[in-house]
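User: Fold this; tokens only.

Assistant: Input:
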Amino acid sequence: MKKLIAVFKREYIQAVRKKMFIVMTILLPLLMSGIIVLPGLMVSQGLGEKHVAVLDATGKLSDAYLDKKDNQNPAANVGSNMKIDYVDRTGDAALEQSAKPYLARFSDKARLLDGVLLVPADAVTNPDARMKYYSRSATDFIVEEKLSSMTNQTVHRIRLAARGVDPNEVDRLMSTLHIDAIQLSKTGQQRKGGTANFIVGFVLTALLFIPSFVYGLEIMRGIIQEKTDRVVEILVSSMTPAQLLVGKILGVAAVGLTQIGVWFLMAAGVIAFVGAGLTFAGTNVTQFLRPSMFVYFTIFFILGYLNFVCVYAIGGAVCNSDKEAQQLIMPITMPMMLPWFLLGGLITNPDSKLAVAFSLAPIFAPMTMFMRTLVADPPMWHIVTSILVSIATILIFFWITAKIFRVGILSYGKRPTIPELWRWVKVA
């Protein structure tokens, strides 16, 4: 036991003293925040201000595009990220011909346009009429959707007014009803659902498996380095291969938990600051972040980590270089990543047959069950079964890994084949 603890201490202290550990512990949360927040901001802002010309052959849609505070302004700012040049082309039957000077501005830096919308003369009277939107980008769907929404709202108003509906009542009749998503647990407790829960689930699930891969690779590379330097021959002369294996795995697991703990403390500070403001605004933060969430995270992080790390330990024991190990490990780890690839479907439908099956299956159980506990209220027997299945899987993995490790740690030369690995398991 003392020797196992000695290996544990060595692996832990060696890892936490590295500058990269300190840098990544501080920078990774900021990087992940940027990865999550920046795309949303870019989408919401349309990647900057867009300048669009609208050629309206109906002559009736000026209210849709002109600034209501200044209807005389022919280049209205609609929102904070779109500028519209409204052009009245009443009765123009050759609208596409009239649009050519505007399309030529796509390459004119002095009078640059990002898009041109053509509204046909029969847009109000013909339900089958179609608008055309020319853009400098093939994927300018954000501006396209905004223009479509603005145009159709005004067309609907005009059509309703033509049928005798009071124009003053049109806005009230066409007002949009918003939905408040509420999760109802089996005990009757109500929690706010929706996009915020999906984001929380995505972030915590990523934190669940990313350290497992990072530190799994550390174990694999450490074992390969010790084999290459022949240090492992000295180590196994004073302890059993099983002691060395367990000490390494637990030491690196403690490193991962330390890093996660620091991240949680950083998150707690941010949540406390933001939560105070949200609480003052009347939003209950506990409906998104519950204490049980962090309990389940710790349990399933350890289970998921031990699932993954055994595979990497095998790769380090049987291979002589990182390249060889990655070629061996990749076909194994990719199927283990199925819950992550199916994240969207599992989070949005956590009680489906597929989600339940994955959460009770070996290897997939930790990640999938954690997802379910975040966004749903799975039966307690599902959670307990998932934990027991994961523990049984880890014990089997440890048994197989220890046997392969015992033979492979002192094996050099050609990488063993699958049949050879099976023989190692039987004879070790």
